[in-house]
Amino acid sequence: MLRSLLVLMVTAWAGFAAIQPAVAEPAFPPGLRIGMEPPGDARLSIHFPGFEDADRKVTITMLDLPGSAYPQIEASVFSKNPRGIEGLKRESFPFASGIGILASGHSQINGVTIHRWFLLATASGGKVQNLTTLITVDVPEPASAVYTDAVIRKALASVTFRPAPIQEQLGLLPFKLNDLAGLRVVQALPTGGVILTEGPANDLNKQPYVIVSVGRGGPDEPDGRGRFARDLLTSAPVRDLAVQSAESMRIAGWPGYEIRATAKGLNGDAISLVQWLRFGTGGFLRVIAVSHTDAWDAMFPRFRAVRDGIDLK
Length: 313
Description:
The protein is of the alpha+beta class. 20% of the residues lie in helices and 44% in strands. It has helices at 2-18, 70-77, 149-157, 166-172, 225-233, 296-308; strands spanning 34-35, 43-44, 50-53, 58-65, 86-95, 98-109, 112-125, 128-140, 160-161, 175-177, 184-189, 193-197, 209-216, 239-251, 254-264, 270-280, 283-292, 310-312. The model is unreliable at 1-23 (pLDDT under 50).
């Protein structure tokens, strides 16, 4: 009797569990620290960071920016009279990972009314730091019966943050790092670059680091590469820069240029650095490596290993 009762209870519980609605999970665009439960038929976009319902022309774009971007975005998007937005309303808006500012209104584009929502928020503590996000939702009038104000607000209330997905971000870079030489990834940059360092902290004033990035353009003729490399190096955030050597070379079979220099870091410490440029068709690969001068001899071979292990995709 007891056994039969237990079987009935387990069967009933299994049936009850089966009919419970599935708990929605936030979806994250590849490489972004920002996710949400997409509304309606919106799915991850293959055209931009965010979500879209292509049939109804609904878009949700998401920007993953440094914390320092917050004041500028607030001044432009949330000014008294942002261009093209009618009936603008502003309000404090709580969501899963904090409280932001929500603005809503509508615009006229090619004779169609577009309902728009802007959520501006920042993260400065906990597991996610140095993050500003601007989420923009555009819903054409014909889709507003499905994507109502209540539906959009519910989706925005589900916005959540996660720590930087380093492997996802590396997969989006236009190059592959085959040899980190014992360094670790600090951050993948939205512009298509990456910062590496040695040590447990992320304070680049105290630790060796490497920045790898790509750029468009560059000189077509060899004679212009030296000047181009020197001009780029002047943008480095250092003081008292003094070039020690500069020469053309081949890097991974491609035309390249190396500049070695000494300088003072922003905290006044003596540093040594090298900039390598690898020129290709229509663009260039740039590697800047920096360490305190007293550690330079030990770090330089490791920097060179990182440089030689980069493959463009």
